[in-house]
Amino acid sequence: MRMMALAISAALLAASTTLAGAQTPAQSGPQNPAVKTDSGNNSDAPVKGANSYTQSEAQSRIAAMGYSHVSGLQKDGNGVWRATATKGGHRVHVSLDYQGNVNAD
């Protein structure tokens, strides 16, 4: 009886080790960026959330998206940076959310 229990235990251990080795390995990191890059937005409107951009970083991010003469930059109650800026010769209201999305209002 003891020999049979030992054999069953050994078989279960061997099977579980084989199954564990066949699992898909974990990803080395997230496949989606935490902050959008200069390539574009992931939203057509500012996304509400805690914003870690400083005022200087927000101004630089807006300028990097092709806006100039950024003025009146203020963070609103939803954590969205808002300003007035010029792009293509037009003065527009812009916003920057915590994800890095820059949108013209």
Tags for this model:
single chain; 105 residues; alpha+beta; 4 strands
What's the SSE blueprint?
Blueprint: H1 2-21, H2 55-64, E1 68-75, E2 81-87, E3 90-96, E4 102-104
Description of the molecule:
The protein has 105 residues and is an alpha+beta fold. It has a domain at 50-105. 29% of the residues lie in helices and 24% in strands. The protein has 2 helices and 4 strands. Strands 1-2-3-4 form a 4-stranded antiparallel sheet, with helices on one face. The model is unreliable at 18-30 (pLDDT under 50).
Number of helical regions: 2
Strand ordering within the main sheet:
1-2-3-4
Give the helix/strand class. alpha+beta
Q: What's the shape?
A: rod-shaped
DSSP strand count? 4
Low-confidence stretches: 18-30
Question: Beta-strand level of the residues, as a percent range?
Answer: 15-25%
Question: How far from one another are the termini?
Answer: 78 Å
* Overall mean confidence score, pLDDT: 79
What is the H/E order? HHEEEE
Helix content: 25-40%
* Sheet having the most strands: 4 strands, antiparallel
Radius of gyration from CA coordinates: 26 Å
